[in-house]
Structures are given as structure tokens and as C-alpha cells.
UniProtKB/TrEMBL annotation, chains A, B, C:
Its EC number is 2.7.1.50. It is an enzyme of class 2 (transferase). It holds the Pfam family HK. This is Hydroxyethylthiazole kinase. Substrate binds at residues 50, 206. Its cofactor is Mg(2+). Gene3D superfamilies: 3.40.1190.20.
Length: 278, 278, 278
């Protein structure tokens, strides 16, 4: 079996496991897209629960198979909730996904993101600008101190973030997803390039958050790299199929969630991507 | 007129009243499903308003015909908001619906849910695990100290919660809804068993919250038992009709809300359920 | 070129500019409709970002071309966030849209809305009751001390708010939108009356918030009066087209967002309205 066949088998197995076992991943996530994240996690076969308070976050970390932390809309209590959550993740040796949305905006977000470096997220998902900014904040190669994040949007192209993504993945010994027109997934050694999806994923809010949420569900059943690649492949497949049915973003979002739900383990495992060694 | 005919008349009257008078029920509810709750309350003919702050909650309690309190995503300020709301409900003698989502998670949620026992909610809606856990927390028959709540999902079957639901309804002199594949509604004397609906209600987030929100609207115009049974019947009817149109959860959610809006008082009153004395 | 032709040219230009430049407007807005606001802002061609914390609000004010402040669900931290945001708006000389949702409910909301008088919002959007109440709170003509706001709904007709809208617009030297079955837009001198749209906009939550959010995007590229009129015309056009496709509110909302996305600069500029001098 080639490396690529092995990966496809693992993707198929991950999707099938999730659909069969309905694993729970708790989230501390932003209120703009919280509903879409939950519905996405359920659509791929998982179970969702979201909280804000410190001891509730701690409870979910322990109860879930993985945790999703998204920095979108920070609340004052997060100063306590987030450190307790990541410390508990480390104590419990449970995997987690970090979505450094809007990195560079505000003192608390910056402090938390710095703090997270030692608590090594298993998967980090961001757009190109976010990944470059995180590598910068963590003083890793490929990063830059000057964030080019504009609100929640990227002003960099995915390829510009490849070095940053690889160096972050090497630091965390996990996986990094750079989402964009083309998506990159890397474990620090290999870089998978994933085409497909739909431009409409950029015309709705929360496509990226939903991807992080789905990755956290898959992470309950597989390694960071496979979970990340599974989530990206599922999204590209569902996005492509949804775009065939619609010509506008709201009906696209509905069709996208429907297709995510309907995609079989085989569909997702067979979706095209390219691998290269870095 | 038989007892059953009487109930059907009351359901028809409740739905018609709400459609005609557009009653407002204020909510303190979770941010994951807050939009769906509001749209559901509007779809059945009511008006929605949601707040977080203590004096704003107090205002809505006074202004609304009923209040919906859902424990999904607790915020620090709820330590003040929730007690003031339920005290005001008692002073004003206004009815309310409690949705003890995620009972067992966190100190504040537990403290508030204990506190609510003396402020007797008129309708309590939960899945089987939540109802059993609430009876346990309130030291009523049928409950257990060990919560089997997993995040927001139930790990118990509806029938296992029947004794707990009845004992809670007797304590509150109100109604209890146990939602699940089959729904139970009890006033502590009679138990209505409601089949129908759709499995897709379990494949979207917020089906339960929306049911509680709808019940609070109907509660502005009728007794707890009738309001609860009306909401459950409306949901089962709309779920059944929506499922005929779709094969996936996102399009189901849209069709479900549409069918909820289109259901006539007669449609809802004629929906099948079975009654037994406990 | 007549005044009306000039206005239509400016509307066309505004819509085209926004579609071409993808301007960002940051928001501090309520959690009930936050997702719809973001998707609306993206659908018309803009970019959305939402925050709660003081320094994050300040950042977004500086980074965005305009800001949207909606008073729907107040959080305790808003006591710091909102004053800092509007002070920064003044220092940076950036335009903003105020949506005084639920004016009259709660001490903090009232204190903030009073405070905003000196920070003159460029566009104020409300239903008739909200606009009358705001004029009352600001002690301007046409207002009344007694709010007839019921939760988030209006109990006044649009025409009753005309005097209040005009006096507010004169105070701010900006524009006021009174939304309802018929919408009014005034700059204090002229009043545009806009018919069309759909009754379904009143059967979903957030139609008004979405209008304010869209207005903030258009405000990045034009004067308050043109931005307001552009947003109202776009909504009436999209509402009318969406209603032709549906018979219920959830499918309406989807079709509405789709039509908003598809509406061309010409479509929106050509939409009918009437102008009168006040």
C-alpha cells in the first residue's frame, strides 16, 4: 500500500468512525458563527456543546473526545476560561483545535494566543494571514510581526503561508490547515494541497469556523494530520456539490450543510488532493 | 364532550389566539440557538425578545405574557439576571418555561437550577437525561443524583424519564415535556405520548430549544399542559411535513420552520397523541 | 440632471463601489441576529467583523470604513466598549450607524443612548416606536418621553415617526431610516418614501438589524442619506423578489439573502421611491 492509499484508508475510517460513534467535541467559540459550527459538527456525525464559563469549559474538555477553541468574539471571562481549558487539555492529554481568528486584535486575544504556544494545539486552522501572524507571535520561521489580518479576512495568499504553516506544525508536532481558495494541510513534513470547494464558502460567514469545528470532531477519532485532511476534503467535496445546485450564498450554505451530511466515507476519502514533501 | 375533544378544542383555541394576538414572550437563552428560538416564536405567531442583563430581564418578564429561560450558555452576569427574573415572575404571577439544558455542567448552572425549585416553572422541557437529572437535583421521585447528560444530548430513553417527569409536574403543578424520538407531556396526572416529528430534529442544533421557545408563546394563552401539548403537536406535525420534502438536515430546518408557520389551528389540534392516566 | 437622477446615479455608484472594493464595517451587535447581519454585509459585497471588548471595538473602528452599533443584547462590558467605540469614531472622524433596538429597556441601554447624542451617529435606523422614543430621549421635536416600544417591535405606524426622524436627522446632520411596511429615509430636508419589500421581513428576526448592517457597508462609500436609501432600496427589491419565490418565512429569508447578493447596481438604483421636501 502506498502512502497515499494509506492516507485514503485512514480518512475513510475516520469518517466512518465518526458517523458510527457520534463523538462529542466541546467548543468555546464565537457567537457570530456558533450555530453553523454546531450544525456542521452534527452534520458530519458528531455532537456539539458550547460554553463560556471556566468550570463549564473544563467539564467539556474532560467529557469530549476533542475540543474546539475559536478566538472570534472574546468575552471578559475568557481570561479565566481559556487558560483553564488548555491546562485541562494538557492534564487530560486530550487533543484540541485552535482557530486564531482575528489574531492581532486586542490585548486579551494576543495574550491568550501567546499563552497557547506551550499548550500546543493539535490542529491549527487559519487563513493565510492568520497563520503567518501566529508564526510571528510565536517567533517561529515564516511568521512576521506585522499582522496583515483585516478583521477576519486574509490579505495574503495561501502559498505565502506555507513556511509559517510548516514551522508551526513542527513546533506543535500536530497539523496546520491554511484555508483559502486552495487549502494547505501540513504535518510539518508533508504538505497536502487541496483544490475544489466553492468560492461561495468565502461569501458566507463562518466557513472557516465550521471547518475548524468539523476538524475537532474528526480529531476525536484520528491523528491531527488525518483529521485535518478529512475535514478539508469533506468541505471541498460538499462545497463543490453545493455550488452545482445554487447561484447565491444563502442557498449555497444550506446545500453545503446538506451535502456535508450526505457525503459518504468513500466520497470523502476519494476526494482529490496532492502531496509533496516539504 | 370527551376529555380528549376538550383538549383538542383548547389546542385549536390556543393556536388561533396566538396567531391573532401576536403575544410576546421574552427569553434569556443560549447563544447557539438563539436565532432559531426567535424565528420559531415568530413563526408560530408570537413575538421574541432576548436579553442578558438583570434589569432588562426584569423588564421583559413584566412586559411579556410568559418567559423562556434556557440554561444553555451561562454568562457570569446570569448570577444576578436569573434570580431577579424568577423572583419577578413570582411577584408578577407570570408563567414561565424552564429548559435545563446541560444540567450537571458547572457550579452556576447547578446553583441556579436548585434555586428555581421554589420558583416553580410552569413548563419544564428537557430530554430524558435532563428531566431525570432535574428530578434528582430537586430530590423528587424518579430522579437520580448521577446525571447521564452528555453535553447537551440525552443518553436515556424517554420512557425512563416518565416517573421523573410526573413527579416534577406534581411539584410544580405545571407541565413537563420530555422530548425525544417519542415525546411525553404530563401534568402529573395524565401523560400524553406524542409520536411523529422527524429524526432530523435530532440532526440540527436547537430543536429542543425551539420547542421550549414555542411553548412559552403558547403559554401566554393557555394552561401549562395545553401549551406544552400544543407546542409538541405543532413540532411533530411540522417535522413530519418537512421530512417529506427533504433528505438532509439544513433543508429540513428551513422546511420545518416554514411548516410551523403554515400549520393551521385545526392541523395542530388534530395531530395524533395518546393519553393515559398515570 | 434632476435631483432624482443624481440620487439614482449615486446609489448605482455606491453599490458598484462596494461590490468592487469589499469594504469592512465592524460591528458591536446583538447575538440574536449577529449571523444574519454578517451574512447580509457579505451578501451586499462588504466584509464583516464583530467584537465585544473595548480595545477590540476600538481596533475595528479604526480598521473599518464605518461601524455598526446595535443595542439589541447588552453585555456588562458594553459600559466600557460602547463609549470607547464612539469616542474613537469621533477622533478618527469615521461614520457609523446606530440601531437603538429595544430603547427604553434597562439602565445601561438608556445611559448609552443618551451618551450617543453628542457622538452624532451618521445613520440611525429604527422602527417607528424606536425613532419616536429616541427623539424623546434626546429631547428633540417629534419625540415623546413615553416609549411605546414593546420588546423589539413597534406599536407605532411609520408616518407617526416622520417628525421625530426629521428632527433627529437635523440634529445629527445625517440620515434616519424608519423601517416598517413603508420605509422612510430622511436627511432632515428631504423625505424619501420607499414601498415594496415583503411582509415576510416582519416574520423573521433580524430584518431590521440586517438593514442597519447593510447601511453601514454602504456608508463606507457614500453620504449617510445615499447609504441609507441604497440599503432600503436593496432590501425592498430583494424582499419583493424573494416573496415571489416563497410562501413562508424561513425559505423567504434564504431567498432574500440570495436576491440581495444577486441585485445589480442598476437594479437597486432603479427601485422606486418617492421624494418630498419636509
Amino acid at each position: 500500500m502506498t502512502r497515499l492509499e494509506e492516507i485514503r484508508n485512514q480518512i475513510r475510517q475516520t469518517v466512518a468512525d465518526v458517523k458510527e460513534t457520534n463523538p462529542m467535541a466541546g467548543s468555546i467559540t464565537n457567537s457570530v458563527t456558533i450555530n453553523l459550527v454546531a450544525n456542521t459538527q452534527i452534520a458530519v456525525g458528531g455532537s456539539a456543546a458550547m460554553v463560556y464559563l471556566p468550570d463549564e469549559g473544563q467539564f467539556l474538555v474532560k467529557a469530549g473526545g476533542a475540543t474546539y477553541i475559536n478566538m472570534g468574539t472574546m468575552l471578559p471571562i475568557y481570561e479565566e476560561t481559556l487558560p483553564l481549558a488548555v491546562k485541562t487539555l494538557k492534564i487530560e492529554d486530550k487533543p484540541w483545535v485552535l482557530d486564531p481568528v482575528a489574531i492581532g486584535i486586542g490585548k486579551l486575544r494576543t495574550a491568550m494566543l501567546k499563552f497557547f504556544k506551550e499548550y500546543v494545539p493539535d490542529i491549527i486552522k487559519g487563513n493565510a494571514s492568520e497563520i503567518i501572524a501566529l508564526a510571528g507571535l510565536w517567533q517561529l520561521e515564516g511568521g512576521t510581526g506585522e499582522s496583515k489580518v483585516r478583521g477576519v479576512d486574509s490579505t495574503n495568499h495561501v502559498d505565502e503561508a506555507k513556511a509559517a504553516a510548516v514551522s508551526i506544525a513542527r513546533w506543535t508536532d500536530g497539523a496546520v490547515i491554511v484555508s483559502g481558495e486552495i487549502d494547505l494541510v501540513t504535518d510539518g513534513e508533508f504538505v497536502a494541497t487541496c483544490r475544489g470547494g466553492s468560492h461561495f464558502l468565502g461569501k458566507i460567514t463562518g466557513g472557516g469556523c465550521a471547518l475548524g469545528g468539523a476538524a475537532s470532531i474528526y480529531l476525536t477519532s484520528s491523528t491531527p494530520f488525518i483529521a485535518a485532511l478529512t475535514a478539508v476534503s469533506a468541505f471541498n467535496l460538499a462545497g463543490e456539490r453545493a455550488e452545482e445546485q445554487t447561484d447565491a450564498p444563502a442557498s449555497f450554505q444550506m446545500a453545503f450543510l446538506d451535502e456535508l451530511y450526505k457525503a459518504t466515507p468513500e466520497d470523502i476519502a476519494d476526494y482529490h488532493f496532492e502531496m509533496e514533501e516539504f
